Amino acid sequence: MGEIRRIALLASGGDAPGMNSALRAVVFSATKAGIEVVGVYRGYDGLIDWETKVLTIDDVRNINNQGGTFLFTSRSERFLNKIYREKAASNLRENDIDAVVAIGGDGTLRGAIEFCKEGIDIICIPGTIDRDVSCTEYTLGFDTAANTAMEAIDRIRDSSVSHGRCSVVEVMGRKRGYIALWAGMATSADAILLPEKWDGNYDSVTDAITRRHADGRNSYLVVVAEGVTDAQALADRIRDKTGFESRVSVLGYLQRGGQPSAKDRMYASLMGAYSIEILLQGRQNRIVAIKNDRLIDYDIAEAIKINNNQLDSFQYELSLMLQE
User: Fold this and answer.
1) Tell me: the pLDDT tens digits for 257-297?
2) Dmax of the chain from CA atoms?
3) Cβ proximity of 132 and 17 under 8 Å
4) For residue 171, what are the β-bridge partners?
5) Residue 286: phi, psi to the nearest 5?
6) Has 199 been annotated as catalytic?
7) Is 18 left (phi over 0), alpha (psi -120 to 50) or beta?
8) pLDDT in tens, 233-247
9) DSSP three-state, residue 26
């Protein structure tokens, strides 16, 4: 691999708090190393259409506290087609781009693997609120999303207590339940439903509420990840089985927005700077990861083979104990 003189920088897939901090750190680190950074708008779609801007430190100096991504993002259907990946690769070569730094989740990583086959060097930074990139213990945006969910649920619970009802709160997490697990534990939920553990047994939820009612409780909180079941159907079952009024709150995209937490800003900055260190060391096609609170990196093709979709067993068992 030759000297890195010019790189492309983009965010792809779902937005996540902390992406701007990562973009900022990449621009700062690259510029200090004498590398020019070309920002690509709208993720992989922007590579295909070549929507770009050369970025300077002044462009990113004050974006650290902003949610989302100032480069915008997209889920590119076209990039799944080899013809468009070839077009993107051609654009990079025509504009003398030596490498790409891409921030995103599992879809971004899989797109990067295919892109490598076009002879493009790419470094990935995991940014997804679901924490669903298996090779890393942390992904950008998770901490902010979990805190946003917790704060919203606290407010919902206040109303639930006042009215003596059951609140069913749906949080994001189609395949991974970490937002539900953390937000549910933090708000003392009576039941937490996770996609990794859901067995379809609604009776376990209604029975738990019935037991608590027998102990003198008159309000209840159920936190459910979106990948488990329909929240309204769950609330209806609770009402029909227990007779308690049940209300649904779907937090939705609220969890993606807002100012990033200190943890997300810090990890994003570290990962962004580390991606440039990888390039300066002459290593190709890597994904930045966190393991035991330390920065590491994997070959992208090897990272995709890591299949660890299990929840932390101690965290899960503790959540069950705290629901008793």
Assistant:
1) 999 999 999 999 999 999 999 999 999 999 999 999 999 99
2) 71
3) no
4) 225
5) -125, 160
6) no
7) left
8) 999 999 999 999 999
9) helix
Q: What is the DSSP letter of 241?
A: H
- Dist. CA 127–CA 68, nearest whole Å: 11
DSSP E strands, the chain? 6-11, 36-40, 52-55, 99-104, 122-126, 166-171, 191-193, 220-225, 246-250, 286-291, 294-299
Contact 309, 33 (CB under 8 A): no
Residue among 15, 45, 130, 143 flagged as catalytic: 130
Q: pTM higher than 0.90 for the full model?
A: yes
pLDDT digits (tens, 9 = 90+) for 153-197: 999 999 999 898 999 999 999 989 999 999 999 999 999 999 999
Q: Are 129 and 254 in contact (CB under 8 A)?
A: no
The b-or-e profile of 188-197 (16+ CB within 10 A means b, else e) is ebbbbbbbbb
Among 306, 302, 286, which Cα is nearest to 134's? 306
Please name each of the domains of the chain with its CATH number.
6-141+260-303 (3.40.50.450), 143-257 (3.40.50.460)
* AA letter at 219: S
| Angstrom distance (rounded) from CA 37 to CA 170 | 40
Please state, in angstroms and rounded to a whole number, the distance separating the CA atoms of residues 20 and 69: 5
